[in-house]
Amino acid sequence: MSSNNNNDNPEDENEEGERKKMPEQKWELRVDDDILLIGDVMFLTICCLIVDLVGIVTSSEFAANGGIFAPVPLVPPTLSKTITKASRMGISWLLAGVNNMSFTMSSIADDESVVKSTVSTWVTYCSIEILLSLAYAAYLSRSGFQQAVPALDLFQQLMATLPIMVAW
């Protein structure tokens, strides 16, 4: 029984021998586990704070200003950058998670599916973060500002995110 089509499944053809049209798949926002979603945002915020704290402690200005005994102002000068970074990280992770269906019950069914879901979400998250950084740098360069992509900061942020999110 040979067929002109490369399809060996007769159920994919109608009575005239033509291929059936596949129904369009609609993109849907599906969140089965609210606690997972809230925990992800919380741990991303913690990850952002850890990366910024490590950046501050390892800077050359830290020791010159008195180290851990330096006075802390009421509003730290890096607060706005930290809030912006945490917001961007959270939005990127949520978009990646929704795209990979990481907030559904099937993604947390067992340990193996949790790790697979987290790693696939992290890869998508890295792509989104890199694209956002490049787009922001391109926007600034078109506006007349010479702004380099903070590659080291972005690398530290992406590398710190994976172990923290897998542990969560």
Description:
This protein has helices at residues 34-57, 60-64, 79-99, 111-142, 151-167. The protein is an all-alpha fold and 168 residues long. Helix 1 (34-57) runs antiparallel to helix 3. The relative contact order is 0.13. Mean pLDDT is 77; it is low at 1-5.
Whole-number mean pLDDT: 77
Q: Please give the radius of gyration in angstroms.
A: 23 Å
Care to count the β-strands? 0
The biggest sheet, with number of strands, parallel, antiparallel or mixed sense and barrel status, is: none
* Strand residues, percent: under 5%
Order of secondary-structure elements: HHHHH
- Oligomeric assembly: single chain
User: How many separate helices?
Assistant: 5
End-to-end separation: 54 Å
Briefly note the structural class of the backbone.
Answer: mainly alpha
Q: Enumerate the spans where pLDDT stays under 50 for 5 or more consecutive residues.
A: 1-5
What overall geometry do the principal axes of the alpha carbons give?
globular
**Share of helix, binned:** 55-70%
Q: Briefly, what is this?
A:
The chain is 59% helix and 0% strand. It has 168 residues and is an all-alpha fold.
Topology:
Elements: H1 34-57, H2 60-64, H3 79-99, H4 111-142, H5 151-167
Q: Keyphrases for this structure?
A:
5 helices, disordered N terminus, globular, 168 residues, mainly alpha
